[in-house]
Design goal:
heterodimer, A: alpha+beta, Aldehyde Ferredoxin Oxidoreductase,  A, domain 1, Aldehyde Ferredoxin Oxidoreductase Protein, subunit A, domain 2, Aldehyde Ferredoxin Oxidoreductase Protein, subunit A, domain 3, six-stranded mixed beta sheet, about 40% helix, B: alpha+beta, Alpha-Beta Plaits, 8 strands
Amino acid sequence: MLKGGYTGKILRVNLSSNKIDIEDTNEEWAENFIGGRGYGTRLLIDEIDPKIDPLSEENKLIIATGPIGSTFAPSSGRVMVITKGALNGAIACSNAGGHFAAELKRAGFDLIIIEGKAEKPVYLWIYKGRAELRDASKLMGKSTRETDKLLRKLTHPEVSTMEIGPAAEKLSLIANITVEGYRAAGRTGVGAVMGSKNLKAIAVYGDGTIRVAEPDAFKKAVYESRSILSKDPFSGGGGAKYGTSSLVGLINKVGGFPTLNAHDAYFEKAKNITGKVLTEKYLIKAEACDSCQISCGRVTEIKEGKYKGMKGAGPEFETIWAFGANCGIDDMESIIVANYICNEYGLDTISAGATIACAMDLFEAGYIPEQDIGFPLRFGDSEAMVRAVQMMAEQSTDFGKLLAKGSYRLAEHYGHPEFSMTVKKQEFPAYDPRAIKGIGLEYATSNRGACHVRGYTVGPEVMGGLDKNTYEGKAKLTIKLQDFTAALDSTGICLFTTYGLKAEHIAKLFSKATGFECDAREFVKKGERIWNLERIFNIKAGFTKEDDRLPERMEKEPIKSGASKGEITDLSKMLPEYYKLRGWDEYGIPTGEKLKELGLEGML
Amino acid sequence: MRVLSIDISKCTGCRACEYACSFVHTGAFNRWDSRITISHFLEDFIFIPSVCTQCEEAYCVKVCPTQALSRNRETGVVEFDPNKCIVCKQCVIACPWGSIKLNHTGREIIKCDLCGGDPECVKVCQAKALEYVEIEDMVLDKRFRSATRLKSSAMEVK
């Protein structure tokens, strides 16, 4: 019997047969893989062949909550989407905030498994423990915000929703899934998988009760965690005041801010696109996800000029970087507009911005003829940038269709894949691996392709006093953070709590919520198990050691200016050590001994 | 007298107050067991907390046929005694704010009791949209804030 935290039920929806089943949550998997990301991966590897085409009917889309969510534990409302990613065919887990996870648990479910493909567009309506598929023809072509709004009219005014925008309907490989039209499970093209299934949206409403295993001890752990978070400069105030974009100044100052498609790592005009500028000129208010006291969400409005009156959520730090420094643009308004377009159409802003930067780079190098685009697309041209984003979102032209596939396909199409700043075909975000060595290892080994939030080494490397320019100890650091984050994600608690909270705090919240007693070490071990299982999925999908690499620009082209001028990186100084410390062989395959230690025998 | 002061402009919509309220009264988490409720107007990113404001002329007290609802003159709180309640729901009908509610079973009346003078919702409201303050301070604060807005327009006119 599950003692608390979980609802104990899973909703299985087969879109091909229109069949809906309710199953029990597997107790052993819950204990070993926590929930969310971990549980979802365990389930996915059990149910699909990792070799399938991610956009085929055989792929499944798992929407998962964590056992700590729908309570007053801090920032515990993450919802995770686990599937075989459309962008690269690797294991995908993208998570989003908002209130969907909390509402899904109130409706009685830990997890939804979506399988098959609907004949015509449908949406899934989950209401108090029951579910049905409904015709979505009226929602098709609608933006994410409009879809959310319409769903509130069609179902219940207090629903939480998950939807795709027009970009995912057209199977853009960098399409996201949004929550309530403004929070995004952004990366790895999870939106395209949802689109390929003809599932436009999910609306959920519930009135159920969530119990925890040890109420008094849980309450104590929650208040302890909340108090720690209140004292940290970011989670205790900076996050609400400046949002994630408070990082622009710092990352640029240390010379780790990829600029002009990573030809450089210092943007001299960065002062025009800082969190301060965003707050002072555009911010209307801070907004929070479920049970979150950090409130990093931005509600912004453009108050004057040609985009006057436009209003929406964001931009986040990564978005400001992607459309800003990486495209050589310091016009905050154009960045905000590009961000709004991505949100409305449902595109991952990191991949979208990095793809535009790649296109600018290819154009300036003379590899993309102007007639293909229809206009010159140069670094620093903010109007051209916004036009290109609109093209990518609408897929109205052949070039727009190409952009919607992400930078790897774009650069490959024009014969220069080395212009794509990707690992496993996924664009890397706003931290330069040449300047911050550990993050390069994290990008190279991240199971979902280049990503900063699987193991955020930037914390200790830039803010925590470690030397960001050295290779020593980075393998160990990366592993530690990757394992911890895998476990943390699976609980439903947001990564941003780690500004204040450590593994011991999260382990305590998890133990007291679920009754699966564990200390910090045992908790992180669960994360290691999850990490290895994700790796196993990728190995079975055909990924090899050759895929654990950085774009050659990172190893050959030194940073031109700023505090990290002259730096390059050398992955070979970290990767073999990383494999060894992971208990993997020289090809990056987990050894039998390691699998046994983690209870994953027979999984590979 | 201390009151629960609500500042709508500061509410981030996180619902932590709902969880805290439900938990402190029932030991579990259910929005429908929370005495305070946040209504989300996502289209405009506006979040509105609703909770009993302990009316001086409390309609709920007036309509209650069994004196399950009564005013504590000393604390100013409209108190509720479930043992006297027959769940006729007249108070739910009478309350203009929807602040007296039925819990998740639909068969029990619930209302804010200010947690006996130590409201749990306030403890989890980092945004300070909810505060437990002396009524004079709340009025003073509101007055000064609106006066500040007037002051800037008065200076523009000058």
